[in-house]
Amino acid sequence: MGEDGKTTVRAVERALDLLLCFTVRDEWAMTELAEKVGLHKSTVHRMLATLEEKGFVTRDRFSERYRLGLRIWELSASMSGADDPAVLALPEMERLRDTLGETVSLYIRDGAERIRIQAVQSNQAVRRVAPVGARLPLYVGASSKVLIAFEEQAVQAELLARLLAEESWPDTIDPAFFREQLADIRRVGFATSFEERESGAAAVAAPVFSRSSHKLMAALSVSGPANRLTSEVMREHVPAIMESARRLSTMFR
User: Fold this and answer.
1) Is residue 108 within a helix (H) or strand (E), and if so which, with residue range?
2) pLDDT, tens digit, for every residue of 204-233?
3) Among positive and negative, which fits the CA dihedral 19, 72, 219, 139?
């Protein structure tokens, strides 16, 4: 704190100004933020480093661009439900569950993983249980493929390079075929999976975009037992899932 007791307050104001930039756009370069808030780049760099360390922002290691971090989701737990995006999505997800009868989940990407931020369980006796907060790999599952396929091309290429370089990439998944799958998913607007991550489970997912920038925000997934969610049944479910994803897109800035 400075001698007059104002230095710390000014630092907090600047940090909040940086965070508030993300109400306008969901992704920023450091130089763009410096220009937006009118601060020197070195000052903004130090502040972003602190915010990143505390989890309030996250930096993509490939594009060097910043987005809000998962600590924001933790803070939202103390907010009114009307202000929480995961809570805002709940009625639409429940409506979809009641229409299709299967478990509905909402995922976001965090680096090379996906995180389930909301779930509505199926009411059927045999069902897939989807715990909120679960971290899952990006190379398997309908939601994972959506979260890669609908990213910007440069981000997608860097993400694939990162995933393929990791030792966890399964030998059973051919990278060339995986890329072809992503292209097909982007063309048709949805993804499916059959027993890719979990034996006996199937899923279909569609992208949720920001209403202002039309950038990818999340993946909406319907999952259940593979003997119920056959290829034919999932094709029948696709219009309802894509319509729900479109409605959710209106809730994300």
Assistant:
1) strand 103-110
2) 999 999 887 788 999 999 999 999 999 999
3) positive
230 falls within a domain: yes
Domain assignment of residue 29, given as a range: 7-69
Instruction: Copy the structure tokens of residue 123.
Output: 């009411």
Residue 1 domain-assigned (yes or no): no
Amino acid at 152: E
Distance in angstroms between the alpha carbons of the first and the last residue of the chain: 36
pLDDT in tens, 91-147: 999 999 999 999 999 999 988 889 999 999 998 877 766 678 888 889 899 999 999
Q: What is the CATH number of the domain that holds 19?
A: 1.10.10.10
Of 155, 132, 151, the closest CA to residue 221 belongs to 132
pTM score of the predicted model: 0.68
How confident is the model over 134-187, as pLDDT tens digits?
888 898 999 999 999 999 999 999 999 989 888 788 888 899 999 999 999 999
**Pair (202, 86) in one structural domain:** yes
User: How many distinct structural domains can be found in the chain?
Assistant: 2
Tokens of 215: 């950038």
